[in-house]
């Protein structure tokens, strides 16, 4: 799909925003991170390094869409032992469910931020998830590519997606939190052909 604009940005209501067109995700400069709690106290952080997809910006921002695929085997939490457990059938079961996907279903936009609702599929289960999204800026890279950066945040209950493994603690509570915070920093490149 070619772009529908010859300039990489436009001004809407005094705000600089990306031009209409297809902005491909740059996997090397995109971070899809998650934060959970261990022993109900300690924050454990991880990220996925295999992220592909595109943001299609429409003339009317509310007609835009986002499609993302995440390679679940690319999980990196800083501990190979923990990562192997995350990939195992007890948690992500990457042999049976190698990817997670997000496909937007609606966009609300005001200025440089908005809300994108979409269908998130993890572990073969699809749920509606809202993302609070901000446009962080635009830059032309040294090779002439036009780049737009976005950030997004949400929280999910991992058990809603069938990722239910846990252990009860002797003093009460569980080993791993059900609620997981997701933080996304997305760098995209305007498709030119």
Automatic annotation (TrEMBL):
Residues 22-189 form the Lipid/polyisoprenoid-binding YceI-like domain. Coiled coil: none annotated. It comes from the Bacteria. Signal peptide: none annotated. It holds the Pfam family YceI. Belongs to the UPF0312 family. This is YceI family protein. It comes from Nocardioides antri. The lineage of its organism: Bacteria, Bacillati, Actinomycetota, Actinomycetes, Propionibacteriales.
